[in-house]
Structures are given as structure tokens and as C-alpha cells.
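ok so for the tutorial part 2 we go from a plain amino acid sequence to predicted C-alpha cells. step 1 is just haveing the sequence, like this:
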Amino acid sequence: MRQRLVAALDQGTTSTRCMLFDRQGRMVSIAQREHQQFYPHPGWVEHDASEIWSIVRRIVPQALEDAGVSADEVVALGVTNQRETSVLWNRHTGAPVSRAIVWQDTRTTGVLAGFAERIDPALVLSHTGLPMANYFSAAKLRWMLDRDPAAADAAQAGDLMFGTMDSWITWNLSGGAGRDGAPFGVHVTDVTNASRTMLMNLDTLDWDDELLAAMGIPRAVLPEIRPTIGIVARTADPVAGIAIGALIGDQQASLFGQTAFDAGEAKCTFGTGSFLLLNTGTEVVRSSHGLITTVAHKVAGEPAVYALEGSMAHAGGLVQWCRDNLGLIRSPAEIETLARSVPDNGGCYLVPAFSGLFAPYWDNAARGVLVGLTSYVNKGHIARAVLEATAWQTHDVVDAMNADAGVAARSLAVDGGMTSDNLLMQTIADVLDIPVVRPMMAETVALGAAYAAGLAVGYWSDRRVLRAFWRKAGEWQPSMTAAQRESERARWRHAVAVAQMWGQRPT
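step 2 — the prediction. this is what the C-alpha cells look like for a chain of 507 residues:
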């Protein structure tokens, strides 16, 4: 009997991977490649969408070959992606108009100011669940259209297509521009990714005409919004015939991969950024403590499931910055070794507001600071401050989520590449004063996309089956005293205030 597998294509901020899973949710193969990061100006972050597509074309066949299966033995493919990163491309040639603008990019502050003159930010928050921030996609699209008047005209005429990475990849997978007899690609997104654009109405799950008009975004350039789980197309390139059964933003995929299907269940992913999501069920819950409301997932024919989210721009990305920009380490794994070379942070604190501050502050103007330096501080202390920055950012978001939920979290389920750092996990448990629990499969983003795609084609009968696959791999108990925790928390908050002050225009 031939083996039947389900595939996930995980297009992330620093790399793209294709993973194959069996019926027990076990990984069978993985193919992965990094892509280049571009920083043309301070605060600007770009990706080459064509490079990312070329990587997809290589890794999908490689993952199949490594698993020893052909395309007709893969029942479905789930696509998950870095969510707010924005691509604008030509419908007829398939060529991107420019590099993709990455979710961390801060160039759109002026665009947001223009939006605020035409529409009340409170109305945007009410309709979309999102504050008016650089993070989200609408201002990125408007910036690309404003950069070239010809692009704005072409978008209005329907000659250009806009999308987050799920749209770009799915369009190419399903045929793209349709050359050489291939079908034309489908221009779609799903509700989880659309909910990150600042253009989708949370109640109607459709593009919001009032916001489109105020922001000058033509409907013709936007993809069709589909449910998360349900077949949208079949692949034509680089292999033919696989059902694309799910599109889902990476953090929602992680929530799904953690099998947090019910209201009240939460997870925190530590990747390039760090993201805490709380499932709120079919109810749209509005935060009063700086979190955002987003769509967790939607099955075709069923009501949408929503979530509260706290987003932090830099976690693993901060470690990468230490490697690439500062040369403190040669590989990300070395950050823990370096941090363990000292007993504490030596009095220094790092606030990584490279893209402003995300939840719960939402301060676009804030800038990163390293404070508390003395001649005593060495690179080991800075490495400690790097890990503690991720822990204290998590603390701030958990505090906000506890306040919104009206009840304190009793533990934190974690996943993502940074969970292999045991010192970081212990630090998070210490500052939160609750246990931190890691599942056996830490890469739950790809797993969640695979679960969603498999459900779409009946590979798994229902979500209850998937719960049985979850296994605990590690747990960290808090060990910090209450007095030390409160002292460190006060210093962290003071450092955050400095980061916010630094972003203000000097008088």
C-alpha cells in the first residue's frame, strides 16, 4: 500500500521550508532554504519575492524526493506565511513591481498620517480590530502605489495584483501568468491573512468599502478572500495536481498546530518575532489593553473563529541581528552559551524597538535602545539582555492578555525555533511566574498548515483526532523570587520609556 502524506509550505521571514507529515502528524521530510534580507535605508526591510518563489520551486520537489513519494501521493498542501509582508506584481508578466515590503518595515509612518487625516483611527480599529500602525499591509500597498503614478493607474485597471505572501505563492503554484499552456493562477487569500491588512471588516469577512475609499485602494488589485480550510486550487508548478487545501497566516497556523481549537486556549511562538494568540471562539473580542483582534481560522461553511493577539517584532530576529550586524556570535545557538558565561545582565537592558514598539504599546516612533552600560558590561551581559528582552516583551503581552481575559494564565504553551534555548525558556517562566510548556513538535507553524490542509480533504476526520498527537517535550518552572521579579520589571519598564522618549523629535 502506498504511503499517503500531507504537505506544508511555510514561507517565513528568513527562510522557506516544505515539510511532509504522515497520518500520525509525524514529520517525514523537510527541505529548507534561507532568502536574502535587504535593508536599503534605516527602518526599511525588503524581500525579493521572485527569489522566494524560486526557492519554493526547488524545495517542494526536494521534500517529495527526500520522502520517497510522488505528487499523487500527497493528498493536500497547506500554505502558511509571514503575514503582513506585501507584494505587488504584474498580472500579465508575473513580475513584481518592486521588492516586497516586510512586516517589520517602518517607512509608512507618513502614509499613516495621511490616512488619519481622512479616516478616524478609532473607526479603523472598530472595523478591522487593528490599530493604525506600520505593521499592517494597507499602508505598504499605498506606499507602493504612491511611489509610481503609473502603478496606481495599472492597479485601478486591474493590471496589477496585490497580496501577502500566501497570495503570491498560491498564484504562482496554481499557474501564475499562465505561460507555456499552464492555467492562470488564482488570486486569493484567506481570512487570517486578510485580517492583517487593515482593509478587511471583521464582521463581514470582506474588504471594507469605507476603508478602501479612505485609503485609496482599488478593489481590482485585491485578492478574493476565502476560508482558511477548503480547496482553493491545484498546483501546476513546480509539481502538478496537489490540492491546495489551506491558506493560513503563520501565527494562526501555530495556534492550530498546538491544537488550541477552543475558546480560552493560547500559545506563544518564538520565531523572528514573538506572537501570543488566545482563541476567543466565534466571538469578536475587542481588547482594551493594547492587543489586536484577528481571525484564528475559518472552515468553509462554518462561522469564523477569532483570537486576541499580542505581537512583538523582534525575538529570534534580535539574535540574528547580534550575529549579522554586531558579530557577537557565529550562529544563533551560541547566544545561550554566551549568555550563560555571566550570572546576570550586569545592569544593562535592551529594548529592540527597531520597528517601533508593537503590542501592547503600539508606538511607531519608538526606537531601540541599549541602556545601563558601564565599563563592567561585556558581550555576555549583552547576550543576557537580548534573551531577557524577549522574556520581558512576553511578560508585557501576557499581562495585557490576562487583563482582557479577566483571569490570569496558569501556564504558557510555546513553540518556534527559539524554544530550543533552555535559558530563554527558564527566563520566561521566571518573569511570568508560571510554567512554560513546549510540545514535542516545536515547529507547529508548518504542522498547523498541514493539519488544516488534511482536514480539508478528509485525511483526518475531525479536529479531535489531532489533539491525540500533542505530546509534551519540556517544561520549565519559575524560580525567581517575587522581589527580584518586581525589581527587574521596573528596570525593564524604565528602559521601554527611554525607547519611547528617544523616538520623540528633539526640541
